[in-house]
Write a sequence for this structure.
C-alpha cells in the first residue's frame, strides 16, 4: 500500500508539469499566461499517513475498582497486518503506584485476517484513590522501519482494605521514639494456659472416645465427614467434580483448559443454588458483588481466591500442570464442604432462635 501511494503522488506531479512548460515556451505574453496558469493549477500534494502499518493498540483493566494490595489484570491488545512484528516496550512503566507481577501473551487471528496479540499483566496497586495508568507503549517493526504505538489511558479506583479512613496515610500517626514498658509477671498466665491445655486434652479424649462409636460416611469425591453434614446441593456438586476427575481431562495437556471450564461451571451452579443468586451470566467480579449481599466475608474470600486461580487458566493463558489442576479440584471440594458446614450451622442457629 505504501508503494501504491508513492506511485499516485509521482503521477500527480508528472501530470502538472507539462502545462507549466508549454506556457513558458511561447512569447512574453505566453510566459505571463503560463505563469498565471501554473500558479492556479499547481501540483497536487497527497498527505500520506505517518505509518499505515502501525498496529492498533488498546488497553482495558478488570476490575476497575480494586482493593489496596489486591491483584487485577490489565489487557493490552495489538491488531496488525502480516509482515509486522510487535512487542511491549520493556521495562513496563505503570508508575510508582503499581507493581507488575507477571506478564503472559497470546496470539490469534481476527475474522478479517489481521493478526492479534494480547498481553495480560497481573498488577497490584499500592496507593488509594482514583488513579490513572499512563498509555503503554507497543514497539513494532514493519518493512525495515521501527516505531512505537501507545495505548489509551486507564482509570482505576483503589479502595482501602479496612476503609478509607484507616488506610489513608494522611491520617496515620507520625513516628515516635521508643518508650519504656513495664515488665509483667507471666506466672499466672502460664498457670492459666496449663490449666486450659489440660482441659482441652480432656475434651479431645472424650470426643475421640465418642467418635469411635459413630459411623463415618465417605462422600463422593473422597471427602470424609459425619453423616447428614452434606446436603443434596453439595452432594450433587461433589459428584460432578468426581466425574471430571475420572474423565481424565485434567491429565491431558490439550484438554486441561476445558477441565477448568467444567470445574468453574460446577462451582458457579453450586453457588447459585447455595446462595439463591444467578451466577452463569456474570463475570467473576460481578459474581463477587452479588455474593457480598448474601455470603459471609470468610466464604466470599474463599470463593474469590478459587475463581481467580481458574480465571488465570481460562482467560489469562496460564498453562497449568496436571498436579496444579488436581490441587484446584481438591480446593473446589474443600470450598463446597466448608460452605456447606457454615450454612448448616447458620440454619441450626436460626432454628434455635
Amino acid at each position: 500500500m505504501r508503494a501504491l501511494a508513492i506511485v499516485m503522488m509521482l503521477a500527480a506531479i508528472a501530470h502538472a508539469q507539462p502545462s507549466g512548460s508549454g506556457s513558458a515556451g511561447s512569447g512574453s505574453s505566453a510566459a505571463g499566461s503560463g505563469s498565471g496558469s501554473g500558479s492556479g493549477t499547481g501540483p497536487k500534494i497527497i498527505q500520506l499517513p505517518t505509518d499505515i502499518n502501525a498496529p492498533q493498540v488498546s488497553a482495558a483493566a478488570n476490575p476497575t475498582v480494586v482493593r489496596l494490595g489486591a491483584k487485577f489484570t490489565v489487557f493490552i491488545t495489538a491488531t496488525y497486518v502480516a509482515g509486522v512484528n510487535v512487542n511491549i516496550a520493556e521495562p513496563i512503566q505503570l508508575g510508582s503506584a503499581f507493581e507488575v507481577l507477571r506478564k503472559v501473551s497470546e496470539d490469534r487471528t481476527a475474522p478479517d485476517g489481521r493478526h492479534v496479540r494480547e498481553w495480560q499483566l497481573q498488577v497490584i496497586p499500592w496507593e488509594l484513590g482514583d488513579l490513572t495508568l499512563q498509555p503503554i507503549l507497543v514497539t513494532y517493526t514493519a518493512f525495515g522501519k521501527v516505531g512505537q504505538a501507545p495505548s489509551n489511558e486507564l482509570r482505576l479506583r483503589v479502595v482501602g482494605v479496612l476503609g478509607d479512613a484507616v488506610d489513608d496515610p494522611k491520617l496515620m500517626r507520625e513516628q515516635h521514639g521508643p518508650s519504656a514498658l513495664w515488665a509483667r509477671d507471666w506466672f499466672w498466665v502460664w498457670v492459666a494456659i496449663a490449666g486450659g491445655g489440660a482441659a482441652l486434652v480432656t475434651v479431645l479424649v472424650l470426643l475421640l472416645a465418642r467418635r469411635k462409636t459413630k459411623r463415618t460416611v465417605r462422600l463422593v469425591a473422597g471427602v470424609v465427614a459425619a453423616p447428614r453434614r452434606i446436603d443434596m446441593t453439595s452432594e450433587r456438586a461433589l459428584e460432578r467434580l468426581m466425574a471430571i476427575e475420572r474423565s481424565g481431562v485434567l491429565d491431558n495437556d490439550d484438554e486441561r483448559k476445558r477441565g477448568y471450564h467444567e470445574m468453574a461451571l460446577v462451582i458457579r451452579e453450586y453457588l447459585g443454588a447455595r446462595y439463591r443468586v444467578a451466577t452463569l451470566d456474570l463475570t467473576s467480579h460481578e459474581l463477587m458483588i452479588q455474593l457480598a449481599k448474601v455470603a459471609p466475608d470468610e466464604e466470599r474470600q474463599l470463593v474469590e481466591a478459587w475463581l481467580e486461580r481458574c480465571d488465570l487458566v481460562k482467560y489469562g493463558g496460564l498453562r497449568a500442570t496436571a498436579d496444579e489442576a488436581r490441587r484446584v479440584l481438591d480446593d473446589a471440594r474443600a470450598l463446597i464442604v466448608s460452605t456447606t458446614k457454615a450454612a448448616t450451622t447458620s440454619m441450626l442457629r436460626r432454628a434455635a432462635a
In short: Residues 322-352 form the longest helix (31 residues). The first strand starts at residue 56 and ends at 62.
